[in-house]
Amino acid sequence: MANIQVTLFPDRMIVHTDTTGFFSFPNLYSGTYQLEARQEGFTTAVRSVALENVDTLITLHVNTEGRRIDTVLVNGKVAAVDNLVRAESAAMPVKIITRREIELMGSRRLDEVMKEQTGVAVVNDIAGGSRAVGVQVQGFSSNYVMVLIDGQPMMGRNNGNFDLSRISVTNIERIEIIKGATSCLYGSDALGGAINIVTRHGALTPQAQASILYGSLNIVDATLEAETPFAHQRGSVVVSGNYYRTNGFNSDRQFLDNESTTFPPYENYSFQGRGRYRTSKSGTIGLTSRYAARQSTMFNSWSDNLRIEDRQEDQELSVAGSYDHVLSSTFRSMSRYYYTRFHTQLQAAWLQQNIVAGAESFGQQAHRIEQQFAYTPMQVLKFTGGIGAGLERMDEQSLDERRSLHTAFAFLQTEWKATDRLLSTLGIRYDYSNVYDGRLSPSFGLQYQLRPSLLLKAGVGAGFKAPDYKMRYQVFYNPAANYLVVGSDRVQEIIAAMDASGEISYRNTYMLNVLANNLKAEKSLSNNVGLSWSPSTKLQVDASVFYHRINDQINTVIVANGTSIASIFSYRNLPKAVNKGFEVSATYQASSRLQFSAGYQYLIAKDLAMLDSIRAGRYPYNQYNNAATGEYRESRPSDYWGIEDRSRHMLNLKALYSYQPWGLNLNVRANIRGRYPFQDINGNQFIDDADAFVPWHTLLNLTLEKSLLNRRLIIRVVGDNLLNFTNRNMLGQPGRVLLAGLSYRWMKD
């Protein structure tokens, strides 16, 4: 549309669109601006734009639908804030979840958001118990997926699993999911991918929001958010607080009484804030902080004389500071410091006997300093690099004499647009620490525009992960789940001592000899080729094939059974493992009110050394024993299903209906997951169809949203798992959950 008046705030610059609907504002300072598009006879549209580089020209479209101006589209990539490393620089596929998508899910915790994404599953680690609810990305377990907030890694894992239910989606601007090896961007622990949570930043006008949800399992989710600019828009502050509680639930009523819980009741408090201040035309200071605390209590009862209660308290604190300095139109510097601390305390007691069953206190903290730079010598070429170092300490002195991890790293990323159609990315990173050898992690990606509607993408990246202190040295007993986890460097010593005192009923001598004092760093190579097709403005289709090769992948394994302890676990390397498959996703805008989307993943995840052992007829891999059918014979390679917790088929379906005259949004989602193996039960050390599986299931979720008072008041009704599916091997999946609540936003006129 021509001659639309566009006003830029706070500068109050005014321009009008040309005959093609374009307009521009040149020579702007770094900061957050507000755009207002106005024309008599139309509804005024207001949008915000974050601008992070000076001397930048922004070009925008103003689209219309019917008789109202509704959308302002910004051409270009998401601006970097307090971090020059962008997820879009990864050679691997990147999925962005926006704040609005999260709102339309009605989600409360991060795990609920992630389980609805294509190629992503939320599972319980078989050795971690109910509190080890981790994420799985394209077959990589939670151990290999790094979780970051604003580009800084988070701490606090339970047997390698990062419990995503710890994180409220309050104050989240977007979530970036990178599928595949991203050690080139983030270092160790990103062997299989990364989840970067970007919090809200910037403010145009003082405003605040309060929201609450209440429903099944006595769930309460209450949030307060506020943001304001200051110093004539040169600075901004965004703060939020969240309180969440639940009564927990019992998904194993077959063996536990009604008072027991397989997922613990807990209360969670979290507070976070982010501030930015532009000290000059070229400099900006950023500060981010977060504090969270969680208290959980689990009660299990098998009989009147066998009742146990455990209490766990978690606390985490993180503070980050940055200084963004634009030295010229082509060179930008970012200095960053990060401190984080996580502490957990667990105590369990047998109630009938009034005896302490076990206690553990574990804490770790880390300091990290980093200097980044971005250099753009020409429009088609960009360099991003940096150097940094970190110091990590453990509270538990019994783990290792050194008890501290010193790291140093350097990285360089390049983006080169050789032609209008071809874009290449090349990255390399070197990591060094005092407990494992230095590691080089390269990556390479290509994007080629085959035609205006068809884009070819390809990438390859290397990753690595060193075993942590717990995997090597810790001895941890979970009395509620009645299992013991022993670090690989101490497993022979502990099992021998327990055997001498008559506490062992069965020991896997073969496996103990394989894994004792032999845990190695893991390495991976990820390959991905895909197509993005947009035949019309209504349809978007993405398809990709992936192949991840992992050497020395670390998995939990049962090494013994005790006379009183049910299972004893340790860790072992799988010499050669592979995750391979394909993903397809599509979004179709059927009308201005109705949108459909779907995503499907096919996955094969196997230990290749396991296949070699079966082919060679090695004991015990050469035995196939199906107790249900009575069949007993020699094993065949085709009997091998794959690695635990991996489904071959995963399908997500979504329908979003919006009726703006009534302010209604209806979002219906179905998450369908094929059956997957839980545990080997016939003793041949690999998964076959005679072992324990979680069956095919569908999780049907619904969110209904009604807005009032010009979208300042929103009423929500949320229904999760409407089909009420549960399984005793899915400890973290509740039955049907119904919630209702409202939110109100106040804005200064």
From TrEMBL:
<dbReference type="InterPro" id="IPR037066">
    <property type="entry name" value="Plug_dom_sf"/>
</dbReference>
<keyword id="KW-0675">Receptor</keyword>
<comment type="similarity">
    <text>Belongs to the TonB-dependent receptor family.</text>
</comment>
<keyword id="KW-0472">Membrane</keyword>
<keyword id="KW-0732">Signal</keyword>
<dbReference type="InterPro" id="IPR036942">
    <property type="entry name" value="Beta-barrel_TonB_sf"/>
</dbReference>
<keyword id="KW-0798">TonB box</keyword>
<feature type="domain" description="TonB-dependent receptor-like beta-barrel">
    <location>
        <begin position="242"/>
        <end position="722"/>
    </location>
</feature>
<feature type="domain" description="TonB-dependent receptor plug">
    <location>
        <begin position="88"/>
        <end position="194"/>
    </location>
</feature>
<dbReference type="InterPro" id="IPR013784">
    <property type="entry name" value="Carb-bd-like_fold"/>
</dbReference>
<dbReference type="Pfam" id="PF00593">
    <property type="entry name" value="TonB_dep_Rec_b-barrel"/>
</dbReference>
<dbReference type="InterPro" id="IPR000531">
    <property type="entry name" value="Beta-barrel_TonB"/>
</dbReference>
<dbReference type="GO" id="GO:0030246">
    <property type="term" value="F:carbohydrate binding"/>
</dbReference>
<dbReference type="InterPro" id="IPR039426">
    <property type="entry name" value="TonB-dep_rcpt-like"/>
</dbReference>
<keyword id="KW-0812">Transmembrane</keyword>
<protein>
    <submittedName>
        <fullName>Outer membrane receptor for ferrienterochelin and colicins</fullName>
    </submittedName>
</protein>
<dbReference type="GO" id="GO:0044718">
    <property type="term" value="P:siderophore transmembrane transport"/>
</dbReference>
<dbReference type="InterPro" id="IPR012910">
    <property type="entry name" value="Plug_dom"/>
</dbReference>
<keyword id="KW-1134">Transmembrane beta strand</keyword>
<keyword id="KW-0998">Cell outer membrane</keyword>
<dbReference type="Pfam" id="PF07715">
    <property type="entry name" value="Plug"/>
</dbReference>
<keyword id="KW-0813">Transport</keyword>
<dbReference type="GO" id="GO:0009279">
    <property type="term" value="C:cell outer membrane"/>
</dbReference>
<dbReference type="GO" id="GO:0015344">
    <property type="term" value="F:siderophore uptake transmembrane transporter activity"/>
</dbReference>
